[in-house]
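Progress note, project year one: complex with zinc ion.
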Amino acid sequence: MINIKENERLSIMNHSCAHLLAQAVKHLYPEAKFWVGPVIEEGFYYDIDLGGITLTEEDLPKIEKEMKKISKDGKRIVREELSKKDALEKFKDDPYKIDLISRMNDEENVISCYTQGDFTDLCRGPHVETVKLLKYFKLLKVSGAYWKGDSKNKVLQRIYGVCFESEEALEKHLEDLEEAKQRDHRKIGKDLKIFMTHDLVGKGMPLWLPNGAMIRYNLEKYIKDKEISLGYQHVYTPSLGSVDLYKTSGHWDHYQDDMFPMMKLDDEEFVLRPMNCPHHMLVFKNDLHSYRDLPIRIGELAHDFRYEASGAVCGLERVRCMCQNDAHIFCSLNQVGDEFARVVQLILDVYQDFGFQDYSFRLSLRGKEKEKYFDDDEMWNKAESMLRSVLTDLGLDFYEAEDEAAFYGPKLDVQVKSAIGHDVTLSTCQLDFLLPERFDLTFINEKGEKERPVVIHRAILGTLDRFTAFLLEETKGVLPLWLAPIQVEIIPVSNDHHKEYGKQILSQLKQSGIRVELDSRNEKVGYKMREAQTRKIPYSIVIGDQEKEGNLVTYREHGSDVKTTISIQEFIHLLKQKIEDKG
Ligand code: TSB
Ligand code: ZN
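Model obtained:
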């Protein structure tokens, strides 16, 4: 999707279009007062005080119509520069503009305003020459927005829109928006009954429905089996820990803002854990280790709880209560390069299995706000340069970003884009010299001396939550056979004549471990077929006389019109093969 803000010409047009919107609103609602109308990545918006009127989407067409009228009229857009005194006089009846002007000063700011016909707005500009150039626009939505973003202030009406240079460009953009809406995992998750949310449970705490739970079970099994084959050992540890545990790790000092508040129980203090590292450090410490045991890879599908702002939570993509595909790798300094390479390879293998192609590697470094990070410049310099050279040696194409590290060390993050344009981290692999220190971890080296291990934190699927969100968007809900909650739908042509045979196939498929359903409702075959399509079931099989007599099935794959008739054994073989190939 195009980023309007980054395109100079479109950015100016969209800004002018925000003025056009304001002018139209003023015509229709003469009492309207205007706060700010900036250009954003998606187009523009304007925050408007309509004196208590709440707009709905139904009001947008008439505003658009008025905008078209003004645009046809074709007035020029004229710039005027003013002194602060003159500006205060000119806008004296407008408390919002007075608020803006009073914070400017003559020496530093050129105060300017732009006039088109009967409408003048305070604005830095620049603008297009005439409103005539603003022809291809669309108002997209309206919402409430607190003045200055402060919930103690009045709610203003925020109208969003977008403007292009041609009809085609606008149409294309609207199509892209519609597609993004269709691909949004929240819509797919609802349509396919994968997850739900409920106010009574709380924001950012989705409930996984049976279909979602089946997908998740398969993902969990997939990744755990893979990890076991790669030498990981899995553990189960509690979702809470004492405050002291998190004081020891440093989370209490550096990560508390992202945590749920502490709870008291008798004379103990607990927190819901935001991360699993402290527990895993203790698991390592439970044994004496020799250099021969390393690397030790402790994995867990572990529940974590984080305070995410209520405006930031989003379906399964950003939750407050998540399940990480986590592991902590304990190794010696000279094993770091190899272990990192193994993790990167695992990430690549997994992405290949799922067919993910659009992702990028980000080296996430410490930022300028040093208090957010553990304070040890030497350790940071060492960790960052070590990680950078590991990535360079791997020949990985990566970019660097400041202020994205964990408080304990730099990270390699795998960034993906969601349907609605969020840039989020899916997998992560992190280098940590701090926690081994804080927990006083050691192993006995070749010389028989105690040595500190290094810890690599890594999450391949990231969280099951975010991974599933991304998977649903990438596949548009059409999951590969091995992950589909229902893999085969059996549709008898007639319930009277073919239901019994249907039941027979049902039980045969079930016995072969296939997730299958028999649709014996009294509905037309065509209707049932369409429903199986809408539910994105990979295979639907229709059975009638011919199938019953010959012990056959006629199957159709999701999205295809091709019908194939084969024996039930062949069909089972085909399914099993495909499940194994993860095709
Ligand atoms: C990898 N201690 C490390 C761990 O050992 C850790 O917690 N890293 S993390 O903070 O980056 O989180 C791991 C992954 O969880 C992220 O890469 C991201 O994919 C996922 N994640 C983080 N926050 C959320 C959230 N609010 N909702 C869903 N997934 C999240
Ligand atoms: Zn960790």
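The two ends are 29 Å apart (CA to CA).
The chain has three domains: 4-183, 195-237+274-475, 488-580.
No further modelling is planned for this target in the current period.
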